[in-house]
């Protein structure tokens, strides 16, 4: 673990992991920009003069490493992960939109995605992802959670104290709701209904937009929700850190293919790297790509960088997180 935590210390400039301070909502500045639509459009992007700015989390003691695997020297490491959140919907098998995962811009056609989308019908009950307290419930017409007002529409933000996570406090955000069924200060239990799916705010079509944040009111403090959600039975998660010879993140899209020799239905997909504004320096995994609910098995990862083909074989195990650190020369 020295390699991973040494890198983390260099990036943070401190000797530990992090927690988030309690943030206060930011109110819309006069003449705030309109929210971008959630499809290819000509709406303006984030305003560089917006009053919403990153709130850096505060460093605390380093958590106990999960394993002693030297991720920099191994093809991959198998971790227990921090699957501290349940699916925020009353459905048998949760899924996210694979075309617009966390950090995606859909190849430059949309704003960087700070969460994930659950594409389910309007009226589907939305559930608390963990025990917590309602930090905010209402709309974002005046209280901003993004650089634009009326971006999330009706939303709920929950504050969680999760001892099993690498942060003392996390926040989950549930947006574009058709109705809100809780109020600020209310205590909720995991799985308790807090609202219903809708298409309020800038949503195009009914869906739940779901985020994980280190600071409730900070748009730039998001983490990839897929790496904190409990995978379905028989499935696991994959986090990748792809860098160049200098150690800088590389914006390439690895191709991931389930080994056909294992039997079962074929599976192949390309993973889009996170947009730079969604690569959080305080992410425990220091990843720039991640996804969940991969069937357990052996996978071939390939990527072409500067005309050279790179290949790596890894395993995904049920209920585990496979961590890959890949240096491309």
Short summary:
The chain has 329 residues and is mainly beta.
Overall mean pLDDT score?
Answer: 82
| Helix and strand sequence | HEEEEEEEEEEEEEEEEEEEEE
Whole-angstrom Rg: 19 Å
Provide the helix percentage: under 10%
Characterize the largest beta sheet: strand count, sense, and whether it forms a barrel. Answer: 9 strands, antiparallel
Strand content: 25-35%
Q: Would you identify the CATH architecture of the domain at 235-328?
A: Sandwich
CATH superfamily of the domain at 235-328: Immunoglobulins
| Low-pLDDT residue intervals, each spanning 5 or more residues | 1-34, 37-67
Q: State the total count of DSSP E strands.
A: 21
What's the overall geometry?
globular
Overall structural class, as computed from helix and strand content, comes to: mainly beta
CATH class of the domain at 235-328: Mainly Beta
Cα distance, first to last residue?
23 Å
Number of helices: 1
Q: Explain this structure to me?
A:
By secondary structure, the protein is mainly β. It has a domain at 235-328: Immunoglobulins (Immunoglobulin-like). It contains one helix and 21 strands. The protein has one helix at residues 2-12, and strands at residues 18-19, 26-27, 58-59, 77-79, 116-118, 125-127, 132-139, 143-144, 154-160, 170-180, 187-188, 193-197, 208-213, 222-223, 235-244, 255-258, 268-270, 289-295, 297-305, 308-316, 321-328. The strands form five sheets. Strands 5, 6, 7, 9, 10, 11, 12, 13 and 14 form a nine-stranded antiparallel sheet that branches. Strands 4-21-15-18 form a four-stranded mixed sheet, with no helix packed on it. A hairpin with an 8-residue loop joins β13 (208-213) and β14. The chain starts with a helix and ends with a strand. The model is unreliable at 1-34 and 37-67 (pLDDT under 50).
